[in-house]
Amino acid sequence: MVLKFEVPLFKDPQFKIEGNRLIDVYGREVRLFEGTKEFLEWAKERFILSIASWNVEKIIGPILEAFGIWEYFLFPKMM
């Protein structure tokens, strides 16, 4: 798991990024684990990376894009 929080609670699309933290308008945070981008960079050279998740794409997609990790995944699909 890359993100450390219940991401579906982030229903408001307004948030800001501070380093490896995303903070929504209510002050709730999502953190990207240290080393995540480095691991994804290493893994994309060796594997096909994709996402299968119960999270709603319109909520999680912008978060992954904001963290700069969406582009590591092929054919991401969220229900």
What are the key terms here?
79 residues, single chain, alpha+beta, two-stranded parallel sheet, 24% helix, 2 helices, globular, 3-stranded antiparallel beta sheet, 19% strand
> Taking strands numbered 1, 2, ... along the chain, how are they ordered across the largest sheet?
1-2-3
User: Segments where pLDDT lies below 50 for 5+ residues?
Assistant: none
Sheet of most strands: 3 strands, antiparallel
Total of helices = 2
User: What is the residue-averaged pLDDT?
Assistant: 80
Shape: globular
Explain what you see.
The chain is an alpha+beta fold and 79 residues long. The protein has 2 helices and 5 strands. The strands form 2 sheets. Strands 1-2-3 form a 3-stranded antiparallel beta sheet, with no helix packed on it. The two termini are 17 Å apart. 9% of the residues are buried.
SSE diagram, text form:
Elements: E1 15-18, E2 21-24, E3 29-31, H1 36-44, E4 52-53, H2 57-66, E5 77-78
Parallel strand pairs: 4-5
Antiparallel strand pairs: 1-2, 2-3
TL;DR?
The chain has helices at 36-44, 57-66, and strands spanning 15-18, 21-24, 29-31, 52-53, 77-78.
